Amino acid sequence: xxxxxxxxxxxxxxxxxxxxxxxxxxxxxxxxxxxxxxxxxxxxxxxxxxxxxxxxxxxxxxxxxxxxxxxxxxxxxxxxxxxxxxxxxxxxxxxxxxxxxxxxxxxxxxxxxxxxxxxxxxxxxxxxxxxxxxxxxxxxxxxxxxxxxxxxxxxxxxxxxxxxxxxxxxxxxxxxxxxxxxxxxxxxxxxxxxxxxxxxxxxxxxxxxxxxxxxxxxxxxxxxxxxxxxx
Length: 231
Known about the structure:
Layout: H1 19-31, H2 34-53, H3 64-72, H4 88-102, H5 107-118, H6 123-126, H7 131-144, H8 156-165, H9 171-185, H10 195-204, H11 211-216
Helix pairs in contact: 1-3, 2-3, 2-7, 3-5, 3-7, 4-5, 5-7, 9-10
């Protein structure tokens, strides 16, 4: 039986209850849309589940507090405070690092959380990093689209308990609209060929420039002058 959580609304979910974890929970809950916050906490629960499926034990094979901080803050860039001038994942990593540094977290631990957040849209990189980084990406992806055949199934009772406390609230749709909304207001937050850029392209029907168009835009090094066309 799990012990009572200092925030009673999360009893039964076995969330970390260190002072820093509680502070981060309150910060994310106050700053983010409820659907984004709920997704962030589910990211931890599902990331921890995926870690257990791999034989990883919290407190032994990875730092559970760092995993939680990376998860609960991983979409901080979609908050009003986090909406800065980079892609939302990097903006969120910067905001999380500032928040944690201001509360005395050691630089090397802040760096792990920064990496976990900044890399959560790059699973081909994140999954090769330490568990506190890899499981943020895995948990976030699992919450938005559970793994197909061969992936670890979530017990139905567990899912029902999680969703009772952390309802989905149209999570995927809210995330999409938050990312696209930021990018439409600040187009430099969604450069071509990025995750945010693709969501904007799908939404607006716009097109991305080709490689050659990018390379021959002014100013240019004229690399294509005299170059024979491809066969």
